[in-house]
Amino acid sequence: MASVGTIVWLSSELMFFAGLFAIYFTLRSVRPDLWEAGTSHLNVPFAFANTTILVISSVWCQFGVAAAERGQGSRTGRLFEFKKWGMREWFVLTYLFGSVFVAGQIMEYAELASHGLTLSASAYTSAFYITTGFHGIHVIGGLLAFLFIIGRSFTTRRYTHRQATGAIVVSYYWHFVDVVWIALFAVIYILQ
């Protein structure tokens, strides 16, 4: 039931982000001059590197899910024996990569603001900050969910299917956030 509920909820989130994409496509068709001026200030290589970090975090997340499904909540070997890592270690690594992604977004905002591209500078910058900002809020929500699942892994001696369900549901959300960012990256940074 938790998986089905999460998928239904993510479907509503998909509609929310579809509305944000509509803002971009409308802006591009109505005011191409704003679009051109706004995209000229974007640091595409930095954004690509930041996107790569988020995509890699989804890989780590999936390794954590595989460990959770095996009933392995924590590592059974030494710290650098990656094959013996449990859900906790993979989710900590996912959390760290997700945090680096958020820090990268903040750095990008600071860089754009230093060039006068603030939220209220133009319709383009408003659309940029609203879409990437809402995505950032969703990433932070995912990071909090990872902390919850990691913390819960310390409270159980035996990692069961019930705990694994929590890890799986969080992975659905994280992969959703990842896919939405890939689409945002394509629309914001590639369609110049």
TrEMBL record:
One of its GO terms (cellular component) is plasma membrane. Keywords: Cell membrane, Membrane, Translocase, Transmembrane, Transmembrane helix. It is found in: Cell membrane. Its EC number is 7.1.1.9. GO terms for biological process: aerobic electron transport chain. Residues 1-192 form the Heme-copper oxidase subunit III family profile domain. CDD domains: Heme_Cu_Oxidase_III_like. The chain crosses the membrane at residues 7-27, 47-68, 89-107, 127-151, 172-191. It catalyses: 4 Fe(II)-[cytochrome c] + O2 + 8 H(+)(in) = 4 Fe(III)-[cytochrome c] + 2 H2O + 4 H(+)(out). GO terms for molecular function: cytochrome-c oxidase activity. It is a multi-pass membrane protein. InterPro entries: Cyt_c/ubiquinol_Oxase_su3, Cyt_c_oxidase-like_su3, Cyt_c_oxidase_su3-like_sf, Cyt_c_oxidase_su3_a-hlx. Pfam families: COX3. Its main location: membrane. Coiled coil: none annotated. PANTHER family: CYTOCHROME BO(3) UBIQUINOL OXIDASE SUBUNIT 3 (PTHR11403:SF2), CYTOCHROME C OXIDASE SUBUNIT III (PTHR11403). Belongs to the cytochrome c oxidase subunit 3 family. This is cytochrome-c oxidase. It comes from Mobilicoccus pelagius NBRC 104925.
